[in-house]
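hey m, so remember when u said the tokens were messed up on ur end? i reran from scratch. heres the input so u can diff it against urs
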Amino acid sequence: MSPPIRLSAAIMTHPARRARALALRDSLPELDLQVVEDPDPYGAGSCSARTAVLAWGAVTPHATHHLVLQDDAVPVADLREQVLRRVGERPAAAISLYTEWASATSSAVHLAAWLGQPFAEVCDPYTPCIGLVLPAEAARELARTRPEVPQDDVMIAGVLRRLGVPAYVTVPNLVQHATEASLTGNTPMGLRLAACYSTAPHSDTAPVVDARVDLLPCFSRSYGRPYYLERDPGSVSGWSQRGLPETLRRRDVDVPALQRAAARRSAGLHRAEPDLRPDIVVSLWITAWLGGTELRRLLRDHTLAPAEVLDRRLGQIALANIGPGIFDQYMPPERLLELSPVLEGFAQAAFTEGVTPSVTGHSPDHRSLNG
């Protein structure tokens, strides 16, 4: 029998957001959250790493695990119960409660949501930490760390790699990201909402597929185009970037046909909404299509048909976030929210073509894409 989980918890904040941190603390009395403020709020550099060191140092002497929330976390109502259950399932791991909707890790979350998996691997070079739980010894090691980078998520990832602590994110995410302006320079990156956040209980009956994911179709925020992450035990993060054309050729996909199909599908959306960047519209279609094809491959390896999982509500929630997530940094938040239903429908159509190739008709392009 596993030893009981003893959880301590803290909120890290800046004096400018102290009122928000106190309100978050008061909304979760069962967690007995300690509020930890930036010790040098107007000093040089980013506040996140130096404040994180103190927040992880707030782990109590008898705790087995320590939870740190950032002041812009919006947690589910039964957070403590959910955290204890997830920690009980992976007691030796770092467990992120959130990843943002355009991260590489969000691609792993999308597949896990369809497959019925309660966790996805963190595959970014940083550890999502708007809500994060660590084994107590890892928290204490972080408290002893002298930050060499200003970003807490990068600092934490380095410590976890050194300690050999694996990192996962919950599916669904248990924390949403509030939409206030960033204090650490991330406002140009957009709203950064969760990849798959839900406050409602779900009664999915589709089978759980225990599939190891080795290849992830992702979207590059830096370059505005899709790419692949492939599992690579020899790399620092365990994943390496792969170019789209060469990876698709390995998958026997006709790349020119894919590009033509993406251009045709995207032209109508661009005509209807001309303020959407046309190259990003094409990238959205390809990214969603690739997600569908990867899900189809994983299901085929487990002799399951897509119809057996496509009614899974968490998968639908994750799919709805692909379009807004990709366009997050390319338009003002109010316009993004206005266009979200259009982007959701567009991504869903591309995903459906990828996961169920029989619906694409009989044109030569589609046969070559799905052959």
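this time it looks ok to me. The longest helix spans residues 278-301. if urs says something different then somethings off w ur setup not the seq
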